[in-house]
# Entry
Amino acid sequence: MRNFVSSTGKYGYSDEIDSIVFSFLSVILLGCGSGRKSGEGAGEAFRIEYARHYRVEHFRDYTLVDVLSPWDSLRLLRRYVLVDRERPLPVGLPEGNIVRTPLQRVVVYSAVHCGMLDELGVGDRIVGVCEPRYIDLDFIRDGVARGAIADLGEASSPDVEKVIDLAPDIIIASPFKNVGYGRIEKTAIPIMECVDYMEVTPLGRAEWMRFMALFFDRGQRADSLFRQTAAAYDSLCRMTDTVGVRPTVLSEKKYGSAWYVPGGRSYIANLYRDAGADYIWADDPTTGSVPLAFETVFEKGQGADFWLIKYNAPQELTYAELQTEYEPYRHFDAFKNRNIFVCNTGETPYYEEMPMHPDRVLGDLIEIFHPGTIPGYRLRYFNRMRQ
# Structure
């Protein structure tokens, strides 16, 4: 199974060494400033197979969950101390956000985590969401329409008073480097910080379903779902092991003055690799998105064989509309050769499904890059752009 970024990274060390370095840093983190009480003893380790940005230890009276900063390997982003809500609060708990589990009422900022909760069977715990227009889940749209789920406005500036009135157990959000949560941080409501989008591999991101499940007592369900996803992903990977030709691929398009491309060490870059394609930014060391000028993208991506674009709009994106949007797009070879594939995330549940089911996206990519490799396959999210 292709668990890591590549056989040899940009800096010349293998992924096996990279894994050892990561484990060593985790030991340092555990020993330095962990906030654990002296004489507490070691807990039972929670085996994590692919994800790099969280760790878990089970103790007799509580579970310790650490979220590791993807931007600073020596820093904890957040620590949670999970305690069964049916039991008295133990004395002498370690420092951290004390969370009584299972969670009953949650506010969710993104479509990704709404989809994750739905898959875990706890979608009914969602009492408020941000930007519901971008969430392609019927139960969310119906709940907002009926008033059962509150529309809290924009994720960058949610209605704090509404959030407080909802009295959620926790707010589920995705942090960004050097960006805070504004006024919401001044409330007493804990924030569950999910950096799943910064994982290096698709299965690393998918394994965050196991992280989420800890807060809802859905561990068995998450473990079963993850095993199924990992097995399906591995099976598809093997189909591209011996492909003779690996086409090059360009992704996304310009928004405003910047063109955001997935970094070369991102899970998206690894999806392209596992699908049997060569990503044009594969040598980039970034795990997140990289903002680039159009000229920079054009210089490197003009000759790419395929171009994949995700967008959210009520109308279909066509070649004519793409050219109207920005005329220089027509100079890319993928535009000239009609090899652009698009995914309208407002019409398909891409963001709601992809984090937990990268195998489904991998199937689409294999069909695009190597048609017919998967017998009888029909595209689920992407389709060939029309005239």
In short: The two ends are 39 Å apart (CA to CA).
